[in-house]
Fold this sequence. Notes:
The complex is a heterodimer. Chain A is of the alpha/beta class. Helix content of chain A is about 25%, strand content about 30%. Chain A folds into 3 domains: about 1-180, HUPs (Rossmann fold, 3-Layer(aba) Sandwich), CATH 3.40.50.620; about 215-270, SH3 type barrels, CATH 2.30.30.280; about 275-350, Elongation Factor Tu (Ef-tu), domain 3, CATH 2.40.30. In chain A, the strands form 4 sheets. Chain A has a 6-stranded antiparallel barrel. In chain A, strand 8 and strand 9 form a beta hairpin. Mean pLDDT of chain A is about 90; it is low at about 40-45. Chain B has 2 domains: about 5-10 and about 255-380, Aspartate Aminotransferase, domain 1, CATH 3.90.1150.10; about 15-255, Aspartate Aminotransferase, domain 2 (3-Layer(aba) Sandwich), CATH 3.40.640. Helix content of chain B is about 40%, strand content about 15%. In chain B, the strands form 3 sheets. A 7-stranded mixed beta sheet of chain B has the order 2-8-7-6-5-3-4, sandwiched between helices. Chain B has a 3-stranded antiparallel beta sheet with strand order 9-10-12. Chain B is globular. The two termini of chain B are about 35 Å apart. The chains are: A alpha/beta, B alpha/beta. The interface between A and B is medium-sized, with 20 and 19 residues.
Amino acid sequence: xxxxxxxxxxxxxxxxxxxxxxxGHDVIGLSMQLYDQSGTQAxxxxxxxxxxxDARRVAAAIGIPHYILNFERQFQQTVxxxxxxxxxxxxxxLPCAHCNSDLKFSTLLDRAQGLGAEAVATGHYARVExxxxxxxxxxxxLDPDKDQAYFLFSxxxxxxxxxxxxxxxxxxxxxxxxxxxxxxxxxxxxDSQEICFVPDGDYASFVERQAPAAVKAGAVADESGHTLATxxxxxxxxxxxxxxxxxxxxxxxxxxxxxxxxGQVTVGPRAALERRALxxxxxxxxxxxxPPDWQAGTAQIRHRHRPTPGRVRxxxxxxxxxxxxxxxxxxxxxxxxxxxxxxxxxxxxxxx
Amino acid sequence: xxxVYMDHNATTPLAEAVADKMxxxxxxxxxxxxxxxxxxxxxxxxxxxARSAVAELVGxxxxxxxxxxxxxxSDNFALRGAAEALEPSGRRxxxxxxxxxxxxxxTLKALARRGWQSTMLPVGATGLVTAEGLxxxxxxxxxxxxxxxxxxxxxxxQPVAELTRLAKARGAVVHTDAVQTAGKIxxxxxxxxxxxxxxxxxxxxxPKGVGALWVRRGLRLLPFxxxxxxxxxxxxGTENVAAIAGMGVAARLAMAKxxxxxxxxxxxxxxxxxxxxxxxxxxxxxxxxxxxxPNTSNISFDRVEAESLLIALDLEGVAVSTGSACSxxxxxxxxxxxxxxxxxxxxxxxxxxxxxxxxTEAEVDRVVxxxxxxxxxxxxxTRTPVRG
Lengths: 352, 388
């Protein structure tokens, strides 16, 4: 089978490519250039020139052709625009999930199919399997510390049918050991951190550079609406944030709500962050089936969130509702709520 | 897989005789050409012979040939060296065209940061710079005019002789980048009338890393490599003797075969072009069909990303090219096609076929056989049509 591997230059996608090549597949390495690399404009930590160089060297080492695709425009229009739009709307975006469903398994998949490839493989720690009924199931990666199924919930059945995650059944330790065995130069390369196009982690400045006109300043207020301070923009806050509020208080205060229209950021005690239910929009029923009624399972509301048991049901207009058995802290609009049945992803959507 | 190489404007394979000569020089002529003794004299003789060959290739005198590291250095040297020498004249305008090679464009940008003003001449739909365009741009402030002899992407040959007459009448120094013509078609510095001319060995079956700048005798040009005063003090640094020797052999081979090879490649190119236009719907030729170097064909494929087509063809064993590659190796919309006023989608869906010595009719036919299927597949999977 001819298969394209999306090679970021990191150890996971490098090993993914090596595994597929060793299995005898006709492997083509593709790397995406996502932002302008000419001099001062470069703002990335992943897929920088160094990473593209690493990907090229790995491809040469395992003997597969490698090409770099210029996806600057698509990346800007999909992932970066959404990231900036969400922050300025008072929400906290999840760009990696958008990159997966809107770039890697859409534009890149199209290109791959144009090259005669049947699938796109990535270095994600997740597993995709075909069930006896023919549907594709997305499961968590075997390594609990590295599982990335959360970022893949928005893949449709059509996308899952063309997806391969060769390292999903391995642990990170296995992957590094495999890379070392093969003598790949990236075997000990550090994991990428943060969001790739904001390597310094300063999202606020990034949003301000990208959309200066959309910055919405306003007040930091308590739960009864009393102004405690002013702030330079709602994009500087996320639900549950404690630092950088510009407010001094005896008891610690946390961001409870962000209203982009008025610019008001409401703060309060930690207990006020707790919710028993949430709704999500633009829900993708990853497994292909919308639950007919309440269905027991777990939900994860952030990448590093321990799944919480409860029940989920579909609502009209592509929405879903989750009721939790235990309090959920800091339910954050813009992040994904992903619903699981055991380690199988049932579906997920964007938290309202 | 047997592969077809049709990217000779990017680089050419080393001619057998060139490789032989270089190996012999590498093994036997280790002397430093600047040394007084026997070993130095032998190396110097090798360089001198190559200098004569290169001078002959461009119709100049050997004393006017300066060896460089290649086309980019020659362009940099010509523009920076001439501009610096012209500083006392008070003239501050540089005139060029939007379809020049990056070696010229980016050097002009660098000079602009140091107080030079550049005027970029428009080109017509076939990539030609016109006499009217140049006349309109020339002023008493014009210090230097640089117009390429033929364009690397579309092959259009510029009326350099005519443009040079106009520029010189206004007292400007004239440079031409002849990297894409030297060795392919006759290049004669006297007939062109220019003051400076850049060439590169690896475009005509010589080695990479060596080129030459022809400098009209008497022209003031400040060196930008200073040191041991090699190359008459204009380009210091111990000569790359083997590469220079290879360039000399490549120049002689090119001269010996030029007329015959130009005819052969022209016929092959026309066959390729006509058959692609017939076999693949939605195709069009870019450039000036009547005034092109004989080996080059640039073709737009509607509703296909050139990037994907290039990769798909490579996977089929066909090596071609497109616009310019950026630092990471990805493709950017062609600045040449953009300057010609082509709509955005055509600047992103054009492929360059550049033929050379080893190409045969059978290879042309293979490319023509492969293309329709590859293009159909890409078109069928284009989610959002490439539009301007």
